[in-house]
Amino acid sequence: MDIKAKVNEAVRYVGTFKFWKELVIMTLGMMVTAAAVYYFLVPSKLIIGTISGLSIVLSNIFTGGQGLGTWITCINIVLLILAFILIDREFGFKTVYTALILGPLTDFWDWVFPWQNIANDNLVTGTPSVMGDPWLDLCCFVLLLSAAQALMFSINASTGGLDILAKIVNKFLHFDIGASVSVAGAVICCTAFFINDFRMVVIGLIGTWINGLVVDYFTATLNNHKRVCIVSKDYDRIRQYIINDLRRGCTLYEVTGGYSGEKSIELVALLGKDEFSSLMHWLKENEISAFTTAGNVSEVYGTWFSNKKRKQLQEEMKKR
After folding, report:
1. What's the whole-model pTM score?
2. Domains within the chain, CATH numbers bracketed
3. How far apart are CA 164 and CA 85, in angstroms?
4. pLDDT tens digits, the chain, 320 residues: what are they?
């Protein structure tokens, strides 16, 4: 594809509803991320395994705690180069936007409502803290950041910074996203020894580990699907319902009962949560005897059509 064709494709994409929807999602997600950094990390100098945490360390060492937004932006620019080289371009282009606005949005919160207006003295160390305790600051930060990260990953973007390294680890070493965030962030936490005591560094390490767990939870919740296994004599009726009504595929296996020794057919399908509910309601309504098991699936690779795409295919089939 030549440069002119790429430009035309980009122009068409900018005019789509998907582009503007994702732009709004990314902007809101980054506003939440910037607020979490500014209000829960900056006052107490609590360093979590993120680029924002590294930026707090560097700003305190070299610029007396000033210019945090500039440090965040500069480090993110370096990591963005890695995103273009090692990760697919869609991820890189989206992350350009999110990474470049994180620093300015941090300064934006400082301009709109400085943390000094609501900070209390840390009950243990006497240093400033919005919540009055580093553990409460940690909990608030992790919940806000993890929700924003999971939302970004669901549209193949990120909050920038450490998410880029986490994506690289996830792509090449096949770790879970949460584990990737934890591994990449642990190294950053150790830089806190330059400005904090041992206790605060340990709190930061624990926060990084918790952040990975919460990201996994939010990611699984946003992308949750059901792997449904059904053994029934009416398997063909069930198959027809899944294919014709739910517009999903399924796989049939011949199985043998361990107790009875009878041969039967097991039907396996991957469904969305609403589709699974519809299937169970249909089985009950039609009084179909079936042994059904279902498990959660958080990630799907290969052909998986969205509801909109399936409706388009359904309309095309009707026209034929």
Report:
1. 0.63
2. 3-222 (no CATH), 225-319 (3.30.70.120)
3. 11
4. 456 665 666 667 677 887 888 888 888 888 998 999 899 888 888 888 778 888 888 888 888 878 888 888 888 888 777 767 776 655 557 777 888 888 899 989 989 988 888 877 654 555 677 887 888 888 888 888 877 877 777 776 766 667 677 777 777 777 766 667 667 777 788 888 888 888 888 888 888 778 777 766 766 666 678 899 999 999 999 999 999 888 888 999 999 988 888 889 999 998 887 788 889 999 999 999 899 999 887 667 666 555 555 555 555 555 55
SS (H, E, C) the chain: CCHHHHHHHHHHHHCCHHHHHHHHHHHHHHHHHHHHHHHHCCCCCCCCCCHHHHHHHHHHHHCCCCCHHHHHHHHHHHHHHHHHHHCCHHHHHHHHHHHHHHHHHHHHHHHHCCHHHCCEECCCCCCEECCCCHHHHHHHHHHHHHHHHHHHHHCCCCCCCHHHHHHHHHHHHCCCHHHHHHHHHHHHHHHHHHCCCHHHHHHHHHHHHHHHHHHHHHHHHHCCEEEEEEECCCHHHHHHHHHHHCCCCCEEEEEECCCCCCEEEEEEEEEEHHHHHHHHHHHHHCCCCCEEEEEEECCCCCCCCCHHHHHHHHHHHHHC
- Chain position carrying tokens 């990390």: 41
